[in-house]
Amino acid sequence: MNLSTVEPPNLALFPTAMDQAYLNDMLTCRLAEAHQHVIRGAVAPTLDRGEFRRALAGFDFTSPRPLDDTLAWVIAQMEHGVTQVTHPRYLGLFNPAPTFPAQCADRIAAAFNPQLASATTSPAGVEIEAHVIRSVAERAGLPPGAAGHFTSGGAEANFTALLCALTRAEPHFASAGARAFAGPPVFYASSECHLAWLKIPHQAGIGRSAMRLVATDGSGRMSSDALADAVAADRAQGCVPVMIVATAGTTGAGLIDPLSCCAEIARRYGLWYHVDAAWGGALIASDRLRSLLAGIDQADSITIDAHKWFATTMGCGMFICADAAAPAAVFQASASFMPPSGPAADPYVMSVQWSRRLLGLRLFLSLAAAGWAGYGVHVERSIALAGLLRDSLAARGWRIANDPALAVVCAEPPPGSGEVRDVVGRVLASGRAWVSAARFEGREVVRACVTNGETMPEDVAEVADALQAACRTSSINQPWLDSLQTTESSPS
Ligand SMILES: *Cc1c(COP(=O)(O)O)cnc(C)c1O
User: Fold this and answer.
1) 279 lines ligand 1 (CB under 6 A)
2) Closest CA to ligand 1's atom 5
């Protein structure tokens, strides 16, 4: 073998230590500058996509470009090419301005790039994640044996819950799939549940018609009477109910389903009880407010997204399960190339993912830095700010449509303001704030949610002004408004 035939490492991909230090410093400075531009600029993107595509076409990857130039170019595009969730007047969907400790965690994970599939390869990473999950489970009031794992987000965690419920209800589901059931398996969530649920029965192979959307009681919460009736009716018709999903913090209006009633109905019929607290789960941090989640402790499983109200970087969901053996029954696998799984099962035999990134460090560092009490303040102040917005809009003649006990305000503009989506379109076009249009209990509303831990009362006052100004503008025909996003079609 001729050693001289092996090229040295590519310096563009693996720069020298000195070049890396320069680039790291440059990146840190540029990102800090960009943040200053972002908080002074428009909240909604102003990027022309056609023009941007033409610029991208210039990257044909034939000749290498200096990384520092490309980094600076990308950051400049991001400054006006995305909805600025780090802007203090982004009162948007549940996407947070990320905590600084979470951003540090991402840098550490990127540098070490640990493989979290197994504890043998990454004992420190796996133990950190398990520790955080246990702490969150304990804080939520689950029994001591509770376990779980980090997920790509709430959708994966909720999918995991359905697979656990199906496997618990019919162990032959593992080998025979939906055919194993005596009748069509079905499950229940409220009509205000997150739209991501609609895909989940399809993914699980039981078909979208397996999902029963239960009526709300007029306040946006699932009606427990309608739920009990639906379960009884399905059983009478030969369907096999497997799971009840209660939402703790609905996407549209931040409401909490009657958790204890849902738990009782699940117990009565022997169903898996899942609480989808992707956003609202952060209430467990507040000693004053955690009782709003009373009943969550009776769940078989819980979804909480750290990347929502816990404000870590995306995506960082958690699936927490009262019985650690349940996910093991779903995700068991053995592969000759993997280290044998020890008594404390490895993530790859407990979850959807195989190769996995170290995610839990984001919440570990944030919790370590702030403590539960610090997060409690974070949650309470967003609710207080939402209360300010509610009062300020109500004082200007808006009708508040929901009971905003959490940090979501749904409000109808005063009569004569025109279509809600036009009002929202004008706010976005003004660049002063970001809110969305939504439907709540059959009414068109402006939806605003405090998602940035640095939003101040003055920001809320400016959002209220921007909303009011958007009502006054006479309603001229502006077809371009149609291209602006509203909540109903946007992911959150
Ligand atoms: C955000 C959300 C989801 C979806 O979670 P992702 O993290 O976006 O995958 C599901 N349910 C609820 C209640 C949510 O708020």
Assistant:
1) yes
2) 154
State both tokens at 81.
């090419």
How high is the pLDDT of residue 345?
A: 80
Shortest CA distance to 276 belongs to which of 292, 253, 310, 300?
300
Task: Measure 335 CA to ligand 1 centroid, in angstroms.
Answer: 32
Q: Is 315 in the pocket of ligand 1 (CB under 6 A)?
A: yes
- pLDDT for 59: 97
Are 173 and 195 in contact by the 8 Å Cβ rule? The answer is no
pTM for the structure as a whole: 0.93
- Say how many C-beta atoms besides its own lie within 10 A of residue 325's C-beta: 13
Catalogue all structural domains in the chain, each as residue range(s) with its CATH number: 114-366 (3.40.640.10)
- The alpha-carbon radius of gyration of the chain (Å, integer) is 24
User: Which atom number of ligand 1 is nearest to the Cα of residue 308?
Assistant: 1
pLDDT averaged over the chain?
93
Distances (CA, A) of 67 to 24, 72, 371, 421: 11, 9, 38, 42
196 lines ligand 1 (CB under 6 A): yes
Q: pLDDT tens for residues 231-241?
A: 999 999 999 99
Helices (H) and strands (E) in the chain, counts: 14, 11
To test ligand 1's pocket by mutation, which of 275, 303, 363, 447 has the most ligand atoms within 8 angstroms of CB? Answer: 303
